[in-house]
Amino acid sequence: MSFDSAPINLTHHFLIAMPGLEDESFARSVVYLCEHSERGALGLIINKPSDITLKSLFDKVDLSLRREDLTREPVFQGGPVQTERGFVLHEPMLMDKAETDESAYASTMTIPGGLEMTTSKDVLEALSTGAGPRRVLITLGYSSWGEGQLESELAENAWLTVAADLSVIFDTPVPERYDRALSLLGLKAWMLSPEAGHA
Q: Is residue 6 part of a domain?
């Protein structure tokens, strides 16, 4: 890294794939970054549904799902890493009567900006009883970048970045999420050239 560039922190931002990014996992993807530091980055793709519904996922782990609003929701392909493992992006759930800001679930990463990402089964158990976080997005797998990797992809114009808007994750129909994320930058897909260029 050159001395004139301060490290950037894109935690709680969207990465929006440029048209020239043809990698099968990431083409036309919107990635929500859960963590970004000098050690690397970790995120979940929020607009690539799999053919698995939450009901069938819960059946697979021997849990019933008593949340009618979630049964037909898709499980998303969160990225190419650990695709057999579940990741639950959700609104913060704090411990009852806790003085601390401790999450109600084990194995939870608190994301500055207002979300949590949990990898332990207890969040699924809470959802199965009809409790748990109201708004969730569940993925199999995640996306990760090693030290300096994301920065070099940004320098190659592979991604656009914008501060995350939770309504894109939880309130926008899946097929519209890419265009909606672009609109946060005042852009439309047709404005982007598939050839990555440098000004």
A: no
Predicted confidence (pLDDT) per residue in 184-197, tens digit = 999 999 998 766 55
Kindly tell me the burial class for residue 45, based on how many C-beta atoms sit within 10 Å of its own C-beta (0-12, 13-18, 19 or more): buried
* Nearest CA among 25, 13, 30 for reference residue 177: 30
For the domain that residue 56 is a member of, what is the CATH number?
Answer: 3.40.1740.10
**Number of C-beta neighbours around residue 193 at 10 A:** 11
Confidence of residue 5 (pLDDT cuts 50, 70, 90): low
d(CA 1, CA 54) in angstroms, rounded, equals 42
Structural domains of the chain, count: 1
45 and 79 Cβ atoms separated by less than 8 Å = yes
DSSP class of residue 73 equals: P
Q: pTM for the whole thing?
A: 0.90
Query: Domain for residue 2, yes or no?
Result: no
- Full domain range(s) for residue 168: 11-190
